[in-house]
Amino acid sequence: MVAEFMSRAREILATGVTEATLNEVGRLLSQASREAGFFTEPEMRSLHGGSTTSSILQSDTDGLTLMVGRFAPEETPVHNHHSWGVACVVEGKDRYRHWRLDGDGRVRVLYEKDLGPGDFVVWLGPPHDIHSQQGVGGAAVELVLFGKNVMKIEREYYNPETGEVRTALPA
Ligand SMILES: [Fe+2]
Questions:
Q1: What are the φ and ψ backbone dihedral angles of 2, each rounded to 5 degrees?
Q2: What's the 4 CA to ligand 1 centre distance in angstroms?
Q3: Residue 6 C-beta-side C-alpha neighbours within 13 Å
Q4: Strand 107-115, strand 94-101: pairing
Q5: What's the domain range around 164?
Q6: What CATH number is associated with residue 51?
Q7: Number of domains into which the chain is organized
Q8: Residues 36, 37, 39, 44, CA torsion sign
Q9: pLDDT in tens, 119-169
Q10: CA of 40 relative to ligand 1 center, distance in Å
């Protein structure tokens, strides 16, 4: 089921990675995620050094990577992925914040959305790939499709208060 979604997503994105094609992939992911047995929740590793965990469901040689993440009710650090993405909630409620890096080196919230099961957001590649997330009233489980295997790529962690930026591999 995951493999079938991945090849259909690849077909859609072959015409170009735009907000329109990413939204089409988001609709497909939302639909697929509601089918029974779309994926089995594997053991998830800790992400962002907090109680957020994640696991790769499939990662292909061209970089297309589907992950499942569990976001605790505490906000992740503000971070980027060096990749476009499509994130779809499958369980719980996720508060998604999208950030923009301004000319003064500070990140500021561009928009915030509460997502329930079946809801999704998309973002384009750098510099449009900065976000933070948290479960609301409990953990939120979410599928995220990336154009690259982001677990092998360093990301930036931004401190909105101080403007400090730290670069690190996903911990
Ligand atoms: Fe992220």
A1: -65, -45
A2: 24
A3: 21
A4: antiparallel
A5: 2-168
A6: 2.60.120.10
A7: 1
A8: positive
A9: 999 999 999 999 999 999 999 999 999 999 999 999 999 999 999 999 999
A10: 21
* Mean pLDDT, residues 86-106: 96
Centroid of ligand 1 to alpha carbon of 165 (angstroms): 16
CA of 7 to the centre of ligand 1 (A): 23
Residue 27 phi/psi, 5-degree rounding, is -65, -40
**How many Å apart are CA 47 and CA 49, to the nearest integer?**
5
* H helical segments located in 34-124: none
Distance 53 CA to ligand 1 centre (A): 11
Q: Render pLDDT for 47-58 as a digit per residue (tens, 0 to 9).
A: 665 578 899 999
From the CA of 95, how far away is ligand 1's center (Å)? Answer: 12
Q: Are 142 and 71 in contact (CB under 8 A)?
A: yes
Q: Which residues contact 61 (CB under 8 A, 6 or more apart)?
A: none
80 CA → ligand 1 middle, Å: 6
